[in-house]
Specification:
This protein has 327 residues and is α/β, with parallel strands linked by helices. The protein has eleven helices and ten strands. The strands form two sheets. An eight-stranded mixed beta sheet has the order 3-2-1-4-5-6-7-8, sandwiched between helices.
Amino acid sequence: MTQQFGATSTTEDVLHGVSLAGRRVLVTGVSAGLGVETARALAAHGATVVGAVRNLAKAEHATTQVRADAEKGGGSFELLELDLADLASVRAAADRLNAAGKAFDLVIANAGVMATPFGHTKDGFETQFGTNHLGHFVLVNRIAGLLRAGSRLVNLSSAGHRFSDVDLADPNFAHTPYDPWVAYGRSKTANILFAVAFDARHRAQGIRATAVHPGGIMTELVRHLPQGELEKMVAQINAQAAADGKPPFEFKTIPQGAATSVWAGVVADANAAGGHYCEDCHVAQVIPNDAPKGLLDGGVRAYAVDLAHAEALWAKSEEMTGERFTS
């Protein structure tokens, strides 16, 4: 696989000259930020895009440009109600998709929350693990029968997976002091491990899965951070970068941030990206579990792409959700 794109590539760079006519895509979290741009880029290149959102009214307003670009590009766009923090809503959304019986070529599990105060989903799961991982785990597995051969699953993860591995003994912080960044790291590691296990279970049917880090982007994802905390974090990152002789951190634009999702879902070689973690439009290098937690160095921690660990998370996720999914 030749390296054609990088950190500054945009969705339009990645999809230049690509027609997605006849392709059907599901994208979660299309009411703001990366989800809106991801849906827009795909629909603008001819795809039929289903956008799954918790707040339909907000999404209707946020996706005006998506519909306009879809019309110009020969694609289409529709909304589906989905609250990932409520498994009843997740199951209802999956039921609607299965009842429609229309196959998908690509699912991008984009929605998520970050560094939330301690809380629980409607089913009693810690908010970040329940929303970012378990909601998508149930949704994707329930509609797996709609994924046709050659289709792909893209799970949005983060360099934040380096903060922490999943804790299968205490996923809901029942016995562990809560830290919002540790919880975020657990959920983002889970997103990668889910992709690893899903890929292993479905690749024989020609269905591949990968996880991606979009990069640092200013979106609504930061809404739970206390005032000034983001600026403090960036200052710390840049101080360490300067000490290491590295350039300072720079935020990506939203089209740059959505590029890796689109690249992994449409452009990347399926055999190269399948079962792996991607960043800046390339497959990331696996780094040791004890490597520094710096967010600028790139790479994926070994614990996040370990298949046995992924299968253990799969079993725990089935136990927590009360569902069993076979390949």
